[in-house]
Write a structure and sequence with these properties.
globular, five-stranded mixed sheet
């Protein structure tokens, strides 16, 4: 079984796009459960999740804690952590099913794509591809596919308010990373609001500071 863990907080606008592709695992003969780990949504998030048949767990609104709470509820031998504003492209189930037949000591991440075809957005897509190729460092909006026993041996997601994805990949070791061919299409609503260049440079700076030893708690206070 594959357990898909999705943290949410007022994600009603995104779930109608991100949830339907997850049913594709049935077509390749694998059982999938979807776990929505909600941080206290006040919109229609929970109603949409319930209508889709997802299991729901309520957690404090902090993505590291939400991911950890969802994983604790999971029944699957494999875990796929996926953001609520990310939709997987057709064909993902076949590639994930094949990856799950491996030795389980690797972690998978999807290729990055976005819902914007502007030159600025596509420049960001190319930069992410280079970052993953050179630094072997995906972010959470590319998903993270990991065997549950490896996730547990690593200690799971830290209960930190920021960079929980980078922190876990760093702990697991980037040599374990396998980049999948399937594209994960992520909303860039915040990038459009803040400016693609501004947001990209801010993210790069914060990750660099994390690798220099600044704590996620300190960086979260400066994120906005």
């Amino acid at each position: 079984m594959l357990s898909v863990v999705m943290p949410t907080l007022n994600a009603a606008n995104h779930l109608p796009r991100s949830l339907p592709p997850l049913a594709a695992m049935e077509a390749v003969g694998l059982v999938t459960e979807v776990i929505i780990s909600d941080g206290g949504s006040t919109d229609a998030t929970l109603a949409i999740a319930e209508a889709s048949g997802a299991r729901i767990v309520i957690s404090q609104a902090q993505r590291g804690r939400q991911l950890r709470a969802g994983a604790a509820l999971a029944k699957g031998s494999w875990l796929l952590f996926l953001h609520a504003d990310t939709a997987l492209s057709p064909g993902w189930a076949g590639e994930v099913g094949a990856f799950m037949q491996g030795d389980g000591e690797q972690i998978g991440a999807f290729a990055y794509g976005c819902d914007d075809q502007s030159p600025e957005a596509q420049a960001m897509v190319r930069w992410v591809a280079r970052r993953c190729r050179w630094l072997r460092l995906p972010y959470g909006d590319q998903g993270l596919l990991i065997r549950r026993d490896l996730y547990q041996r690593a200690g799971g997601f830290a209960e930190v308010p920021f960079l929980e994805d980078v922190e876990l990949v760093r702990r697991l070791g980037r040599k374990r990373l396998h980049m999948l061919q399937t594209v994960a299409i992520t909303s860039v609503e915040r990038h459009r609001k803040d400016g693609f260049r501004n947001r990209a440079m801010r993210n790069i700076s914060l990750v660099a500071l994390f690798y220099l030893g600044f704590s996620p708690n300190f960086l979260a206070r400066h994120y906005e």
